[in-house]
Write a structure and sequence with these properties.
It is a single chain. This protein is mainly alpha-helical. It is about 75% helix and about 5% strand. It has a two-stranded antiparallel sheet. α7 (about 110-125) packs antiparallel against α8 (about 130-150) and α8 runs antiparallel to α9 (about 150-175). It is globular, with a radius of gyration of 18 Å. The two termini are about 20 Å apart.
């Protein structure tokens, strides 16, 4: 864990504190095993949602299995599932976002799926601040395509999904750290 000294000489955790806080809730029940619970749970649900997403995209069963096998063994996801890192909860939110985006594009063009997709993706900033850049790139691409398809209402709903977590994150950082981007992002912006 990286620590940083704030302007008033207070000591802060540089990474977003939500992961450690959520894990600590189960400490009375699980004890020291709690460090593996949230990453393993996120890994399990990520695998299930990725499987469902791939199933919507591919008709061939062998292709689905190859992609799931790659997720299991050719990505760091399995390693992160075994460690006390916030990467897997963030990955779960990204995969959840992808699942709802694929549902929006391929099955039902309900704006609710688009809202859930953008909300979940951007909520990943509470675990990994770098998700903000993924959300920004996604927002630009999605915005361009929705404008091109003349879906202004859907674009507005997607923008709300992006804005809610960003506003909540900035407010939490202003209260906790005294700045909007948070200590981790602030530290990275200075490099």
């Amino acid at each position: 864990v990286m620590l940083m000294v704030g302007k008033d000489e207070s000591l802060f955790v540089v990474f977003p504190p939500l992961f450690a806080w959520l894990s600590s809730l189960l400490y009375p029940v699980l004890g020291d095993r709690v460090i593996h619970f949230l990453p393993l749970l996120a890994f399990f649900f990520s695998f299930i949602l990725l499987s469902r997403t791939i199933q919507m995209l591919l008709n061939r069963r062998d292709g689905r299995y190859a992609l799931l096998f790659s997720f299991l063994l050719a990505s760091p996801a399995l390693f992160f599932a075994m460690t006390f890192f916030e990467h897997l909860p963030a990955l779960f939110l990204v995969i959840s976002s992808l699942y709802f985006l694929v549902r929006y594009c391929m099955q039902e063009t309900s704006p609710a799926f688009l809202f859930l997709s953008t909300l979940l993706l951007t909520s990943g900033i509470f675990f990994r601040t770098e998700i903000f850049f993924l959300a920004a790139a996604s927002g630009l691409s999605l915005g361009y395509n929705l404008l091109k398809l003349d879906k202004h209402k859907d674009l507005f709903i997607a923008a709300i999904g992006y804005a809610i977590p960003v506003a909540a994150y900035a407010l939490a950082n202003a209260i906790i750290y005294g700045n909007l981007p948070g200590m981790h992002m602030d530290f990275n912006l200075r490099i």
